[in-house]
């Protein structure tokens, strides 16, 4: 996407750069001070999978992708380096392991030092998470009652037990967003967002709990004063170091000293980019639909929802509490689901030739010829999907849950692949509805859903989510609200905005509302939701 030629060129320091590292790619977005996107670029990143539910990435590869995306976005916008006045980073909550000076250390049996990131979706630490949960430490109250194998302390314990030499040699263990902040500025500060949500830091008390680390077998980290996981913890948007180092600036194509704000996890950046738009973060759930899905609920007082992560203080909207649910596989679950269909390989070849991803193509086919987008639900025919291919993140906090597909026939054609796709999106939406209901029962209701993420960009998907949950879906004026969330960090670090709350209100806007259908469509979703709950329950019972 490039700059609108009808707008005047921004002056020095007026442009904010947001960098978003998702599971599949690094993206860079340039925004003006009003939050309008001027240009963006994307660069894919490498990912390795290995037996034992291991998924790894490379910090070097990711940094290079960040630099390439940034340079491309700048070139697309035709902007000089000095136009950029502030930079923000968001990233998946993956664990980066580096030795002295930042040299990558291998995290798995490949022994390849390039593979120095345990990706958030890596489930190698399920046994460690279960052991930690059995010990029932008080800090677990602040992660939804159960630690997830996707969080960092079970992963650290896995490293200490299975790779003790690497654990001992590690100079720093970073969440990916904090790694990027350090790589850009040399500042080792961690963001309250990352350490509170994934490392058991208690932001509401401004402290780590040494007793937790000692109890679970990571006491050495406490003995060192938490120097390897975060001796200094700062609010997102806090300026890091002296801004970009000379080396990082040269690599990114920016000016040395450009202010950089402490970062955010990617889902939280989606929240920052959306829920401030109407000044009502407590009414609006941020729903980030990408490779995974995240449900981000803002409350004034802490709300304890069993099976939903949190409550976390100031992890997203400053001064407010956050509950985070979602599904570990969402976009990834739809990819997995459709790949099983006999027509999938041929359809994927055809769509590749068109330069379109298969799920996007299927979504377009599903919506084809419909006068009313809500009718799309009828195209699921008799198919029902509980898309828990990577467990149930919320509200059951059950990494062992698995997917269910019901209603399959002998069909092998493209229309039946489209039906399977629609049934899959319905399944994602019913998982969201189930989380909304669990939160409502616990005292954290929301009125509307503010959507972001690559899988939530099409009208059809947004309308289906509204219809299946019964809540209006709000869409941002910018195509990439996650990138806007990161750019907001840059605006605060640059001093353009006094704080995150002011920046959210000034820079984000809602452009469209998708109202839920009533009547026959609502009744259809009620019936399908009942089937979803029954199938989910049957699968749980079948596992014993
Ligand atoms: N129309 C769609 N329907 C379903 N899934 C989609 C659609 N468009 C994109 N996706 C999925 O969204 C995911 C990418 O979303 P994105 O937010 O860009 O990813 P991430 O930040 O996780 O790298 C992929 O799993 C992709 O298949
Ligand atoms: O756990 C998460 C946020 O807390 C996310 O699921 C994780 O960071 C992956 O994000 P994405 O699906 O956008 O790649």
Automatic annotation (TrEMBL):
<keyword id="KW-0808">Transferase</keyword>
<dbReference type="Pfam" id="PF02782">
    <property type="entry name" value="FGGY_C"/>
</dbReference>
<feature type="domain" description="Carbohydrate kinase FGGY N-terminal">
    <location>
        <begin position="16"/>
        <end position="273"/>
    </location>
</feature>
<dbReference type="GO" id="GO:0005737">
    <property type="term" value="C:cytoplasm"/>
</dbReference>
<dbReference type="InterPro" id="IPR006003">
    <property type="entry name" value="FGGY_RbtK-like"/>
</dbReference>
<dbReference type="InterPro" id="IPR018485">
    <property type="entry name" value="FGGY_C"/>
</dbReference>
<dbReference type="GO" id="GO:0019321">
    <property type="term" value="P:pentose metabolic process"/>
</dbReference>
<comment type="similarity">
    <text>Belongs to the FGGY kinase family.</text>
</comment>
<dbReference type="InterPro" id="IPR018484">
    <property type="entry name" value="FGGY_N"/>
</dbReference>
<dbReference type="InterPro" id="IPR043129">
    <property type="entry name" value="ATPase_NBD"/>
</dbReference>
<feature type="domain" description="Carbohydrate kinase FGGY C-terminal">
    <location>
        <begin position="285"/>
        <end position="494"/>
    </location>
</feature>
<dbReference type="InterPro" id="IPR000577">
    <property type="entry name" value="Carb_kinase_FGGY"/>
</dbReference>
<dbReference type="GO" id="GO:0019150">
    <property type="term" value="F:D-ribulokinase activity"/>
</dbReference>
<protein>
    <submittedName>
        <fullName>D-ribulokinase</fullName>
        <ecNumber>2.7.1.47</ecNumber>
    </submittedName>
</protein>
<dbReference type="Pfam" id="PF00370">
    <property type="entry name" value="FGGY_N"/>
</dbReference>
<keyword id="KW-0418">Kinase</keyword>
